[in-house]
Amino acid sequence: MKRAPDFWWHRTLPPLAHLLRPAAWLYGRVSGRRMHRKPRARSRLPVICVGNFVVGGTGKTPFAIELARLLRSDGHAPGFLLRGYGGRRKGPLLVDPKTYDASDVGDEALLLAAHAPTVISSDRPAGARLAEEQPIDGLVMDDGFQNPALAKDLSLVLVDCSTGFGNGLCLPAGPLRAPAQMQIVKADCLVLVGEGDEADEAVHLAGRKGLPLLHAHIEPRPNETLEGRHLFAFAGIGRPQKFFKSLTDMGYTVSKTREFADHHRYTETDARALLTVAESEELQLVTTRKDMTRFASLDTELFRWLTAKTEVLDIAMKIDDPDRLIALVRETLRARSFDG
Q1: Looking at the whole model, is its pTM more than 0.70?
Q2: What are the boundaries of each domain within the chain?
């Protein structure tokens, strides 16, 4: 996946964005209508979808992990279902981190599998059937909000308060996966992530529909190894700048950065370049857990050396009112039981 263009996140549009408007209009209508198709299948398990309106990182995976933790605390045994973006396996398969690496199942699947049984499948109904065979009582679906194939019992849609809908246009002119007005109809709850006023339009749409609002924050976890070091930060995620800003906001000294495309597959050329710069300029390498997951299992001398020389800044998702979220889930499960 190529790096998202900067103009996606700014209201002032360059000439290229205007040229792409017809394609964006067509893409948005096709995608929006697809969202409203009748689902092909319904799982025997309750399905909670964690999605977003735009392309790029809003914290879906850390939110899904935190949601699963809350569900376990409430006496449930959740599992995860996702497409496995970035991996070559189509599934359905149960993710075993000892058997598969990120090139097989994608980085997000490996992160989720550390917390609960995780199934990847490009065909979500088929994935749900495999998940039903696992010792779980519900499915948390990481992404798939726009995919109509599997019926969802509860759709929690995340919005980054610092970027919102970006420039408000659909792919390829902007980051929206379909027009916001068409997407909001399928949402059951809006989760506002972080700080800022760029989510005002999303809040307005949610208010018109009467959707509940929740708030959440991504909290980086301090890494003592980074204290007092000059850092070379690199990342291949939806918005690498957010990672770099997190480091500086925590008081770390970021001397150099390098951005890769989202879900970037690291090569030996990449590893050699990162190590060479870090050594020659006496910098400490640091990256995200997702990035580390992608190259840590690659069994070559260069990648073993890169793994040994790179620190990770871990993050956690904190939900401001977890009791309200669990109450919403309980209400959904009661309705599911009543409907049979």
Answers
A1: yes
A2: 34-218+318-339, 222-313
